[in-house]
Write a structure and sequence with these properties.
The protein is of the alpha/beta class. 29% of the residues lie in helices and 19% in strands. The protein has 23 helices and 26 strands. Bound molecules: 1-deoxynojirimycin. 1-deoxynojirimycin (NOJ) binds next to loops.
Length: 721
């Protein structure tokens, strides 16, 4: 059945149209029912398949027009089965991980009546103070774009009509991750060029992948709050990119235009938002009141724009097949996780861990006496942010999981401190128990609640109590391996050089303890990489791998610490002194984008390009880069090969390098594999300003690296003859 949308719209009253453009934020059951009877177009998921069906029944059978509703829910990294957080997924450098999460999420969600998820968040950010970096993928536009497309493919499946597909929502359009000082909801001021190059790019990729919806950002960007950002919502997203889906406002984001101070009241806010291109307002009942009276009249809001918004909403319902099949089979609905999905979540989790340092303490020996200490020894807080009350629980602690994984080890368990509190007695207890152990595994981190929305931190070190525990153990001479559970890159300077090994495990979801235990034992070999730079100090932020060149770059590898300052301020040493650096920090970040070790070692050899010089026309046909990776160690493992391009001379200052490809390969001991990449003109183009993307002939450098070693080749793009 194809519904004639134009005919349907022609039958609708002004109020009925406005009702299609609303989703009310967290109504109680009675309010929801009243809104549905009035003919509201969307609702948040009432938490069961039966109630979702009842919502559809009211919409279809008890309203004049009988239009089914969109049922929305934030399914961010799992509804029942929780997968690693998005940032953790990006650390896998394996888009299949994100696609798998989205597939499982979609099947759990749709079967229970959800039709629309407010995910993926594709906001890149260079500021780990921002709590929401955990919900996004990384600092890099290319990696985020690949993951955005993978998530969209996973959620939406082959067809939105399928019983295991949901409409995806790219959020938050745009530059939410650029908020000043990393403070959530804060304003951003970004050049048009950077907007194009960095912040818009993952959205463009997500739209190209077919994302059905996009959410506006809370942020004010360059003076215009995004909910009123016509130039971007309509100009770029809808007109330039041809996006014919739905733009939804964020929770109360439209009404908050009043707080932003660009309109005097909510009526003005609604008009500004819808005229700007918002199609569905998320928040209170700001369009039509409880008696069905519209707050705005056709004189105030163009009917053409309203019709366009309504058409977009109805078209989405049609794409989802809701006019034909508004109901789900409640008897077959997911009510919770399954062993199969838990197993998939564990496998995904094992691909996300990053071995930051290792002096040999990891993998753990399979016998001897090991002390497991720290608040994460027994805490079950591994799910991460954006998990709702109906999510599956974590069934075992890390203490249980390591005991099961390494049964011949003589395990001793002690907390030593809480997440935020330590006493001399609790630390002393840990130290005395460590004296009897060959090795101490300290499981520390950011509990889920201090990352995510509204959880920006000015100090991104580990909570003090946990740092005290690490120092106390190191002071006592213990050999320490740290399991770092976190929602963001942390500043780890005060303790990182004191411990033998650090395994970063993020928040890995429902099966985190088993995945961590299997990685500690070596059954799983860590193959993830840092997707977001770990700074040395908060004062170094923003710090990211693709920083632009400066006129006075500092020499890499030289530390300019106070004790060496004299050397740099000495006579005739202007070269070193007047360079771009911090006097009180060693150069560069603590862990660069792409960093990550393994229990085995790899060699990159024989890097080649299919040509070293070509014209733009020839480049259209593609250029091939290839390198051979060999596992030179004695256990199987994964290497991640990254491909970067540097534009050596351009009319606009360029980043020192830009990621243009990556590939994760699994190799047996001694095994080699050729890893190939295709580069084309788009990989060499850059935005000259906000409207021109150019390809300039000249010299480029192509680099392949795996975080441990690199190889470079020159490439020349020649003028056409
Ligand atoms: C506010 C958040 O910014 C957004 O990401 C989320 O989807 C909405 N609330 C709805 O829950």
């Amino acid at each position: 059945m194809t519904v004639d949308l134009d005919a349907l719209i022609a039958r609708m009253t002004w109020e009925q149209k406005l009702l299609q453009l609303q989703i009310v934020w967290r109504p109680d059951a009675a309010e929801r029912e009243a809104l549905l009877r009035r003919g509201i177009g969307s609702t948040f998921w009432p938490p069961s398949a039966e109630e979702a069906n009842e919502a559809q029944r009211i919409a279809v059978e008890e309203t004049e027009l009988g239009i089914p509703v969109l049922v929305g829910l934030d399914v961010i990294h799992g509804q029942f089965t929780i997968f690693p957080t998005p940032l953790a997924q990006a650390a896998s450098f394996d888009p299949a991980v994100a696609e798998l999460d989205a597939r499982v999420s979609a099947s759990e969600a749709r079967s229970a009546g959800v039709t629309w998820t407010f995910s993926p968040m594709v906001d890149v950010s260079r500021d780990p103070r921002w709590g929401r970096v955990v919900e996004g993928f990384d600092e890099d536009a290319y990696l985020a774009s690949v993951f955005a497309a993978a998530k969209v493919a996973g959620y939406q499946g082959r067809a939105l009509t399928a019983g295991d597909s949901v409409a995806a929502c790219l959020k938050h359009f745009v530059a939410y991750g650029a908020g000043e000082a990393g403070r959530d909801y804060n304003s951003a001021d970004v050049s048009d060029r950077r907007l194009r190059e960095l912040y818009l790019e993952p959205f463009r990729a997500g739209v190209e992948a077919g994302a059905a919806t996009v959410m506006a950002a809370f942020t004010s960007l360059n003076g215009t709050p995004m909910h009123a950002g016509r130039a971007l919502l309509t100009g770029v997203l809808k007109d330039e990119w041809g996006f014919d889906g739905v733009v939804v406002g964020d929770a109360d984001g439209v009404a908050q235009l009043v707080q932003h101070g660009i309109v005097p009241d909510e009526r003005g806010a609604v008009i500004a938002a819808i005229e700007a291109g918002v199609d569905i307002v998320m928040g209170g009942t700001v369009l039509v009141d409880s008696d069905g009276v519209a707050f705005v009249s056709p004189d105030e809001l163009s009917e053409e724009r309203v019709d366009d918004a309504v058409r977009r909403v109805l078209r989405l319902k049609q794409r989802l097949g809701l006019f034909e099949h508004p109901y789900v089979d409640a008897s077959a609905a997911s009510h919770g996780t399954t062993e199969r999905y838990r197993d998939l979540s564990r496998q995904a989790a094992e691909r996300c861990t990053v071995l930051l340092t290792n002096g040999g303490a990891l993998p753990l020996p399979d016998r001897g006496r090991i002390l497991l200490a720290g608040p994460y020894a027994r805490s079950l807080d591994h799910l991460g942010t954006w998990v709702q009350h109906f999510a599956s629980t974590v069934r075992e602690s890390l203490a249980d999981a390591v005991a099961a994984e390494l049964p011949a080890v003589d395990w001793d368990i002690v907390d030593g401190c809480g997440f935020f509190d330590a006493t001399d007695a609790s630390l002393g207890e840990a130290v005395s128990r460590a004296a009897d152990a060959d090795l101490v595994v300290v499981a520390v981190g950011e509990p889920s609640r201090i990352s995510g929305e509204a959880s920006s931190r000015a100090d991104i070190t580990l909570p003090e109590a946990q740092r005290r525990l690490i120092h106390a153990l190191c002071d006592a001479g213990a050999r320490v391996a740290v399991v770092l559970v976190t929602g963001r890159p942390l500043v780890v300077e005060d303790w990182i050089d004191r411990v033998d090994a650090v395994l970063c495990v993020w928040h890995l979801g429902s099966e985190a303890p088993a995945a961590i235990a299997r990685t500690l034992s070596g059954r799983a070999n860590p193959g993830g990489r840092v997707p977001m730079t770990f700074p040395r100090a908060v004062g170094q932020i923003p710090v990211h791998y693709d920083h632009e060149r400066t006129g006075r770059p500092a020499r890499t590898g030289r530390a300019l610490l106070p004790e060496t300052i004299a050397e740099f301020t000495g006579p005739n040493n202007t070269d070193d002194y007047y360079t771009s650096k911090f006097l009180d920090l060693p150069l560069g970040p603590r862990f660069d984008f792409g960093h990550g070790l393994s229990y085995t070692t790899f060699a990159l050899e024989g890097f080649s390009l299919s040509t070293e010089a070509l014209t733009a026309d020839e480049l259209d046909a593609g250029l091939r880069a290839e390198v051979t990776v060999t596992n030179t160690g004695d256990r199987a493992g994964d290497d991640v090969v990254l491909l970067f391009v540097t534009d050596e001379v351009a009319s606009v200052t360029q980043p020192v390098r830009r990621l243009r490809g990556f590939s994760r390969v699994t190799l047996a001991p001694g095994e080699s594999a050729a890893v190939g990449f295709r580069l084309d003109a788009d990989d060499l183009r850059f935005w000259a300003d906000g409207s021109r993307r150019v390809l300039e002939p000249g010299e480029f450098t192509v680099t392949v690296g795996d975080g441990t070693s690199e190889q470079r080749l020159a490439l020349r793009l020649e003028e056409a003859a």
